């Protein structure tokens, strides 16, 4: 039992706890560390048992190698298993497995996730199975998605743990040797540490202070969130003496014990190794033996190749080498194949390694090194040439055993370059698999190693191209460098791949806010390309980047050249792309909403994006499908825009793209909900998008887009101070983003804020400047940038006649564009600078137009303005009707400021505001269906009133509700409600 006691109890030696318990041994000088764990486990279990809110903790144990961290964690696991309700998960970082993505997380999560029932799996994973499953090894990567955003995997893991923790609560997650964790696992653990206190989870981590330099930020994040952090130190002379006497009994004298402490410096691991050698060599633990201790300690600490050869013998050492290559997940049959040993010989090697306390067997049949330091020592003892050869064999054995290139690739990285084309192909395939599980860093390591092989001249540029694309979602600078090298390569790419590379490079430049460089690159390459689809693709890209740029020298000329761009010869994808770009150009120019809608519809196939224009497609990127949806959003086809943007969110979630792509989709949906007047929903989408934007980088175009619309939303809700605080926080002010156009026009939004704050002079300066810039560019859309109407408001007190001229010009432009919301809002703004009966007349027209649009907030605004104008001219009964309508609709929109204003107007008129009624969900009532069916047939409102024997005002109200709930104007009403163009019952 003495041997068992030493093996189990000595710090840093990782024996079984039952042996230590049987010997009645405790861990030396680790009472405080163990008590922290006991308290945390007990508190978590007690809260769970009593039905209380169990909140998590994060415990850290750190110190140099051999300080007993592993033994402390063994005790923590034993304490947790002693609580009947606890679920214990364990993983260990591996020195040789730091380049194997998600290695630690697979160890940690696979045991519990693989045992979920189908029902539990559906509940725990939700929509994340296709993203998280391949990363943790539950399912092979899908070929449907070429690359998954690492942030998407982390978001999915967060979701899975959030669902898993209550179902397996309380959950204790223990990770040893965190300093050797792979980057993917360490990154997630660092982010999860922030949330661990919100869940019934105890996270316990142990590590040496030997992290890679590029992980400093992750380590600090973990340390900052720790509930308690214990630094383990060396043992004192008394504890070492206790250990000596645990091994040799009372015959160990004081001088011998003191010398053991001196030569080991109190390091638990060195102490154990020394005492074992003393016992194995039969040395008496007395003062006369102390001269031999220093040499024994040096030999035990050094553990050279000769040391292991003498201890184990050549055959057993060769198996140990194979085990050291495999790291923390050692299968006997795999190690046997690597060391070229048959089953019987391998079994004998295992017995010897267990006897010499090098390996230990686990309940799952796997083997582990008794201590990580032993594994390190044996790995370092392998001759360099032998090590390289064995890594090559290991890669083949793992792949042949069904492990896949994700597991085999770390061994491929350790082989010597030999110009082997097959090795290049394997590394490229491994990179593809890494990208499909959300591990681009691992993919880049494989492709860089492929370049070092080196590949043949014909393939080198392709590998450079693949290396550039592998960093597309995570490292724009690396993508730019590698793609430029691929384009400059002597042997070069095929023509079609060269166009792909140019487009990818231009896309990265554009997303990095250099749209001018992106457009110039595509223009230069288009000049070199032969006439045909590839050249047309580049030409379309030039127009796209010029359109999205903040400034351009010849906007009208670009629009003219775009209209003249021939559609033949062109692929179907190119035609769809060109239609999308022309639709947005028509929208910005404010030429004709009907023509813009026609072009947007031509970009679709049966109302959906074609495969070539997909949100996650690699041919065009996300800009063109976004422009189709934005065209619908600014032409009152909001239901169609919402369908497209909803598809975008789902596609990005399915692909695991959780960065700028999903943030942009949230922005688009938020903008559409704002246009529809659903202000609370708009704010929610926009804030979600802003959170994603903030974790990417400050000041990116996406941030500007979101902040502008969010400020407009807060303004519409009556929270002008909050809106101003928001724009100040993010530096949102003219002249806007330095290179990219902001959606919608940033300067106009800023001018509206200044006007709302009473700064007329500041607003006048902003509106005047933006008006001149947009006019020069040929952009006259009054919905995109209603600068003229607001400028009229700002100058009206000083220049009333000029204000009316400006407002009338804005109405004329709106009528040219022709969408109901454009005309209605322009009329409302003209009414704001008019008086008396003229203002009432304009607002009646505005309410009529806005009643045909889904823009419910703008409709509510016009109703309240009309009620106010009617009150001012003494028409109190009519004023009351419109004020009540406007107040109800404003409440439905979440426009609290407008509700308060309408109440004040009613009070001034001597009327009592009625109790607000909450509108039902977007479902038409039977009376609304009756009106809708007649409207779809083309029956005008006056005849509808006559046919249904209703007042005309009530018909207008019901039509307005129909358009608002359907999310579309008159042109799209039939399709939105599932009615035949000639009328008829709704379709399924």
UniProtKB/TrEMBL annotation:
Region (Disordered): 1-23
Pfam family, one: AAA_16
Residues of the Orc1-like AAA ATPase domain: 42-204
InterPro entries given in the database record: AAA_16 (IPR041664), P-loop_NTPase (IPR027417), Sig_transdc_resp-reg_C-effctor (IPR016032), TPR-like_helical_dom_sf (IPR011990), TPR_rpt (IPR019734), WH-like_DNA-bd_sf (IPR036388)
Keywords of the record: ATP-binding, Nucleotide-binding
Protein name, entry field: AAA family ATPase
Species: Kitasatospora terrestris
């Amino acid at each position: 039992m003495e041997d068992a006691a030493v093996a189990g109890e000595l710090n840093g030696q990782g024996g079984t706890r039952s042996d230590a318990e049987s010997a009645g041994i405790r861990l030396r000088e680790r009472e405080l560390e163990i008590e922290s764990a006991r308290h945390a486990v007990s508190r978590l279990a007690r809260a769970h048992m009593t039905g209380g809110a169990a909140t998590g903790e994060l415990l850290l144990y750190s110190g140099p190698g051999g300080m007993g961290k592993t033994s402390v964690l063994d005790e923590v696991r034993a304490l947790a298993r002693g609580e009947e309700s606890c679920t214990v998960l364990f993983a260990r970082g591996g020195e040789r497995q730091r380049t194997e993505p998600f290695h630690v997380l697979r160890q940690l999560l696979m045991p519990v996730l693989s045992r979920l029932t189908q029902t539990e799996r559906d509940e725990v994973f939700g929509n994340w199975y296709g993203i998280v499953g391949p990363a943790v090894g539950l399912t092979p990567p899908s070929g449907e998605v070429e690359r998954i955003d690492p942030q998407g995997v982390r978001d999915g893991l967060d979701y899975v743990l959030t669902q898993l923790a209550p179902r397996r609560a309380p959950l204790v997650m223990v990770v040893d040797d965190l300093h050797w964790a792979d980057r993917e696992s360490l990154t997630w653990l660092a982010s999860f540490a922030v949330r661990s206190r919100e869940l019934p989870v105890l996270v316990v981590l142990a590590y040496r202070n030997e992290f890679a330099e590029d992980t400093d930020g992750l380590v600090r994040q973990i340390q900052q969130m720790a509930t308690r952090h214990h630094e383990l130190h060396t043992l004192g002379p008394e504890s070492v003496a206790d250990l000596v006497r645990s091994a040799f009994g009372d015959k160990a004298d004081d001088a011998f014990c003191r010398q053991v402490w001196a030569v080991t410096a109190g390091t638990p691991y060195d102490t154990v190794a020394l005492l074992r050698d003393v016992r194995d060599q039969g040395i008496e633990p007395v003062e006369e033996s102390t001269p031999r201790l220093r040499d024994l300690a040096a030999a035990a600490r050094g553990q050279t190749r000769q040391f292991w050869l003498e201890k184990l013998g050549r055959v057993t050492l060769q198996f140990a080498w194979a085990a050291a290559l495999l790291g923390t997940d050692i299968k006997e049959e795999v190690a046997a194949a690597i060391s070229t040993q048959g089953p019987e010989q391998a079994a004998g090697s295992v017995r010897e390694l267990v006897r010499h306390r090098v390996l230990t067997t686990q309940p799952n049949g796997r083997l582990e090194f008794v201590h990580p330091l032993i594994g390190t020592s044996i790995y370092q003892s392998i001759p360099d040439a032998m090590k390289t050869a064995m890594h090559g064999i290991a890669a083949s054995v793992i792949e042949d055993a069904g492990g896949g290139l994700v597991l085999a690739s770390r061994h491929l990285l350790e082989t010597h370059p030999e110009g082997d084309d097959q090795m290049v192909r394997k590394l490229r395939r491994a990179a593809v698999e890494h990208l499909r599980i959300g591990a681009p860093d691992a993919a880049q390591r494989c492709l860089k190693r492929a370049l070092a092989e080196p590949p043949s001249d014909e393939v080198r540029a392709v590998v450079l191209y693949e290396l550039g694309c592998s960093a597309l979602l995570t490292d724009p600078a690396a993508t730019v460098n590698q793609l430029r090298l691929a384009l400059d390569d002597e042997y070069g790419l095929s023509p079609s791949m060269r166009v792909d590379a140019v487009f990818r490079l231009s896309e990265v430049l554009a997303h990095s806010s250099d749209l001018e460089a992106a457009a110039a690159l595509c223009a230069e390459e288009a000049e070199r390309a032969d006439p045909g689809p590839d050249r047309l693709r580049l030409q379309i890209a030039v127009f796209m980047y010029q359109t999205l740029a903040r400034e351009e020298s010849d906007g009208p000329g670009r629009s003219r050249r775009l209209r003249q761009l021939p559609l033949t010869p062109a692929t179907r994808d190119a035609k769809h792309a060109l239609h999308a770009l022309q639709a947005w150009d028509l929208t910005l120019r404010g030429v004709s909403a009907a023509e813009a809608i026609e072009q947007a519809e031509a970009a679709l196939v049966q109302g959906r994006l074609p495969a070539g224009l997909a949100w996650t497609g690699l041919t065009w990127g996300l800009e063109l499908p976004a422009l189709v949806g934005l065209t619908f959003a600014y032409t009152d086809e909001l239901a169609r825009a919402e369908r497209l943007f909803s598809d975008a969110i789902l596609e990005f979630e399915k692909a695991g793209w959780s960065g700028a792509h999903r943030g942009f989709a949230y922005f688009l949906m938020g903008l559409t909900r704002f246009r529809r007047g659903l202000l609370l929903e708009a704010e929610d989408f926009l804030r979600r998008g802003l959170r994603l934007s903030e974790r990417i980088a400050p000041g990116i175009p996406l941030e500007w887009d979101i902040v502008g619309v969010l400020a407009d939303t807060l303004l519409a809700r009556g929270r002008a101070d909050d809106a101003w605080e928001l724009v100040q926080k993010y530096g949102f002010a003219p002249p806007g983003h330095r290179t990219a156009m902001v959606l919608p026009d940033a300067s106009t939004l800023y001018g509206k804020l200044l006007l709302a704050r009473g700064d007329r002079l500041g607003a006048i300066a902003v509106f005047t400047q933006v008006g001149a810039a947009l006019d020069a560019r040929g952009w006259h859309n009054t919905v995109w940038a209603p600068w003229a109407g607001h400028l009229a408001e700002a100058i009206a007190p000083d220049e009333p006649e000029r204000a009316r001229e400006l407002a009338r010009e804005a109405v004329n432009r709106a009528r040219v564009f022709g969408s109901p919301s454009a005309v209605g809002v322009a009329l409302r703004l003209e009414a704001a600078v008019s008086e008396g009966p003229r203002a009432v007349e304009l607002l009646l027209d505005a309410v009529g137009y806005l009643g045909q649009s889904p823009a419910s907030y703008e409709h509510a605004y016009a109703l309240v303005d009309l009620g106010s104008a009617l009150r001012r001219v003494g028409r109190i009964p009519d004023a009351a009707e419109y004020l009540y309508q406007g107040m109800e609709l404003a409440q439905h929109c979440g426009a609290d400021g407008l509700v308060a204003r309408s109440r004040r107007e009613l009070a001034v008129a001597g009327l009592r505001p009625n109790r607000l009624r909450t509108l039902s969900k977007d479902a038409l009532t039977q009376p609304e269906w009756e009106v809708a069916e007649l409207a779809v047939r083309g029956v005008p409102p006056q005849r509808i009133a006559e046919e249904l024997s209703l007042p005309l005002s009530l018909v207008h109200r019901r039509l307005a509700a129909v358009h608002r709930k359907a999310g579309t104007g008159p042109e799209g009403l039939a399709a939105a409600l599932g009615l035949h163009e000639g009328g008829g019952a709704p379709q399924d």
